[in-house]
Design brief:
- This protein has a single domain, classed as Up-down Bundle (Growth Hormone, Chain: A).
- It has 20 helices and no strands.
- It has 471 residues and is mainly alpha-helical.
- The chain starts with 6 loop residues before the first helix and ends in a 13-residue tail after the last helix.
Length: 471
């Protein structure tokens, strides 16, 4: 357990961990309004532009479960510092990239480093707070970070309009240095989990299967449903991921313990975080694109147009944390999922109607839902895991969350472009209509409904004590 027990030291530790997650979340959506400038300067073509966003998300989704296991093995603070240094260096690489290829490589390295430090940081927050204070702590940790994720278009719009897109990445450097400085000043130490055998073939299978699945879905979206190589990639990816799960479930000491998902509450929390991330990333990227393309907003106006999503999160995150501390996870999570479902319906209506006021109302309701649901879900999922496996549990939960982000973009592109002609696919970005984007937002309604149903049956009223260490 992390040795940081004094209240003032806890808050400084929480500040360091929140800064790191905020940086990760910001980089998930900040490119929404910066992509046109990046595309023009680095000469991206249509087929590679999506990798500027999805390369980062895909690398993080593929690596984050391994990153959680790495944190338990080498110590969570050590994993956090390693990931933070790598993320900062990769951010500098993005800012200085002279070509599209180097930019994408730097983004992928960013994703791997984010997947190393994110599960470590959330496990550290749970470690240092007693059970009755975890809701408020995770409300700060996850809620403020969610603000940066949702505020990516606003921050990116301001930077692009008044400086340049390069500052979207230079911004990470001072945040990283502050977080690293705090962990060194506090002289934080952590206990390592018991050594377990590493199944390297399983790790290689996971690292191959996830990119194949997501890239296949992405190719279907950009080139049409009849693209045979994309279907081959999807099938191979699914087979590899099933093989990975089979290997891990069949081992007494698995490298990544999927049996943690046998806890119904932990699985429910992970699934709903997948769904909310699916919605938020798609909304952040294509909501900004929609406002600029079809409502005539400037990059700065498109960024300001996301404020109805941000303000409700600020209002309710700490209230949701207190509700979790006093009443358990079910009440705030189900209330949040209800708001998420209603908000996605209103947003979809607003997109089809070409009406920003309706879209803004939907964003506000969605923001309420995210504020109520996400931090209690994070806190409850890690509280349910044995102490020695919290890094691993965090990695699994964040893998689901990041998988939601990557699949969210890929499937949204597929829905928006899936029924257009092959010729249109050659210049997909320019052939999108408001109706196409409306169908993409309609997909969010289906995902929100799935999250509500799973949450209703899986999220319990009172958090159970952690199960015994498995394996």
């Amino acid at each position: 357990m992390t040795e940081t027990n004094a209240p003032d030291r806890r808050w400084l530790t929480l500040l360091a961990m929140t800064g790191s997650l905020s940086m990760i979340m910001l980089d998930s959506t900040v490119l929404g309004v910066a992509l046109p400038s990046i595309r023009q300067e680095l000469n991206f073509d249509d087929s590679t532009l999506a990798w500027a966003v999805n390369g980062y998300l895909l690398a993080m989704a593929s690596w984050v479960a391994i990153g959680g296991r790495l944190g338990d093995w080498m110590g969570r603070i050590n994993a956090f510092r390693l990931g933070m240094v790598g993320f900062m260096i990769a951010s500098i690489g993005c800012a200085l990239a002279p070509t599209a290829l180097i930019f994408i490589i730097a983004r992928i390295i960013q994703g791997i480093c984010a997947g190393t430090m994110q599960p470590a940081s959330s496990a550290i927050v749970i470690d240092i707070y007693p059970a009755k204070q975890r809701g408020r702590a995770m409300a700060t940790y996850a809620g403020i970070s969610l603000l940066f994720m949702a505020g990516g278009p606003l921050i990116g719009g301001a930077l692009v309009q008044f400086a340049s897109w390069h500052w979207c990445f230079w911004l990470n450097v001072p945040i990283a240095l502050i977080s690293l400085g705090l962990t060194l000043t506090l002289k934080m130490k952590s206990i390592r989990a018991a050594t377990r055998k590493t199944d390297w073939p399983s790790i290689l299978i996971l690292l191959a299967g996830t990119p194949l699945l997501v890239s296949g879905l992405q190719e279907l979206g950009h080139h049409g449903l009849m693209t045979k190589p994309a279907w081959v990639s999807i099938v191979i990816g699914v087979v590899l991921l099933c093989l990975f799960a089979h290997r891990q479930l069949g081992q007494t000491q698995p490298t990544i313990d999927l049996r943690l998902f046998r806890d119904r509450g932990l699985f429910g929390n992970a699934f709903l975080l997948l769904c909310v991330s699916f919605i938020n990333v798609g909304q952040g990227i294509y909501g900004s694109f929609y406002m600029q393309t079809f409502l005539g907003f400037t990059p700065m106006q498109a960024g300001l147009g996301t404020l109805p999503l941000l303000v409700p999160v600020l209002v309710v995150i700490h209230f949701a944390g207190r509700m979790y501390d006093h009443h358990g996870p079910r009440r705030p999570i189900m209330l949040g999922l209800c708001f998420v479902l209603i908000g996605t319906v209103i947003e979809t209506i607003g997109v089809f109607a070409l009406s920003y006021p309706i879209l803004a109302i939907g964003m506000a309701v969605l923001g309420l839902g995210c504020g109520f649901a996400m931090s209690p879900a994070n806190a409850d999922s890690l509280s349910r895991a044995p102490i020695a496996q919290r890094g691993e549990a965090s990695g699994l939960v964040q893998m689901m969350r990041q998988f939601g982000s990557t699949i969210g973009i890929a499937l949204m592109v597929l829905v928006m472009h899936g029924f257009t002609s092959p010729i249109a696919h050659e210049n997909a970005a320019s052939t999108l209509t408001a109706r196409d984007i409306g169908f993409g937002f309609g997909l969010h309604v289906i995902v929100a409904f799935a999250a509500f149903v799973v949450g209703y049956f899986c999220i319990q009223r009172v958090a159970d004590p952690p199960a015994a260490n498995i394996g």
